[in-house]
Design brief:
The protein contains 8 helices and no strands. Helix content is 77%, strand content 0%. With 171 residues, it is mainly alpha-helical.
């Protein structure tokens, strides 16, 4: 059962990253779990190809991204897609005992949810997955320059949104 062992290894090593990306994008834990399950079901169906994966994490994140694109396309209207992205807030960051840090983390999660999905995807892949703009561009089928622009615009929006809170907590 070498395929099963490889599949288990990929799950152990990459499931958390795939789930975090899906949760950040869908903003819904149930949908993120569905994406994670579907990613590994697709991988299991391609068991003969597991040995040829050069970048398993990148491949799995790309699968997750494509599944989420399909998910959003299936939404009946743009309003429903917007509601799915900005719905009830999920906890993206680990709890902390520091009340100021807790407020900042909650506000950061909310600010991330307000970003357009294209910017949020690039920010997540850059900050949490440490991918280059070239890798992000390849994963999202955009140019590295577009990835860098989306990153910059997203960071600018986050900075503008969070600066008042940062200044308040600093004093």
């Amino acid at each position: 059962m070498p395929h099963r062992a490889a599949l288990e290894k990929y799950y152990d090593e990459h499931a958390q990253a795939v789930f975090a990306y899906a949760l950040n994008m869908t903003r819904n834990e149930a949908d993120a779990r569905d994406v994670l399950q579907e990613v590994f079901l697709k991988l299991a169906r391609q068991a003969d190809d597991l040995h040829s994966l050069r970048d398993p994490r990148g491949y799995l994140l790309r699968l997750a991204h494509n599944l989420m694109v399909d998910y959003f396309r299936r939404q009946a209207t743009q309003q429903r897609a917007t509601e799915a992205l900005g719905g009830e807030e999920e906890i993206l960051f680990a709890p902390t005992a520091d009340p100021d840090e807790a407020i900042f983390r909650q506000q950061l999660a909310q600010a991330l949810g307000e970003l357009p999905p294209e910017q949020r995807a690039v920010i997540h892949l850059k900050l949490w997955e440490n991918l280059t703009f070239e890798a992000i561009g390849a994963m999202l089928d955009i140019s590295p320059h577009t990835a860098a622009s989306r990153y910059r615009y997203g960071l600018d929006k986050l900075q503008a949104r969070l600066r008042p809170l940062y200044e308040e907590l600093r004093t």
